Amino acid sequence: MYRLIQFGVVAMIWFFSALVSWYEGSAILDDPWEWKYSTPFSHWLAGPVVHEHDISQLDYFVYAAKFRPVFPSLLIVCTVYLLILAASYLNQRTFAYVLFVFSATLPGLALPFMDATTAGGTWLAIVLSGCALVCAALGAMTIKNHSVRQAKS
């Protein structure tokens, strides 16, 4: 029951963060000089952006992450938390392995942001790296607790 309440609260925070990030990112429509640098999804899906209607909705999140990183960061933290919460239903050993996979994957997601020219990109790299450290620590604690329980049996 406690996990279900956590899931509900974090899911509501995730949804709110997604809406605010989407809204904040819509400011890209007013910044045509950023279209070349902040619209990777549009470039990938349809080629160069010429008009504002060429911009993908996903690029709103990229723009928000670059220039207003608070809610995109909260969105990332909530996503990682929801994934950890879902994985916690697995047995202890598998849960620990999933955490270690997260701790290895998240720094890879942070790499493109390491040399970011905006404060938002740097902030996202820090958030992703922090989430990776938390996952590694939780994985180590889970393995330790699993080993202690097996030793007592």
TrEMBL record:
Q: Which UniProt keywords apply?
A: Membrane, Transmembrane, Transmembrane helix
Q: Which Pfam families match?
A: DUF4306
Q: Which residues cross the membrane?
A: 7-23, 70-90, 95-114, 120-143
Give the matching InterPro entries: DUF4306 (IPR025440)
Q: Which domain of life is it from?
A: Bacteria
Carries keyword Glycoprotein? no
Task: From the Swiss-Prot or TrEMBL record, give the protein name.
Answer: YjdJ family protein
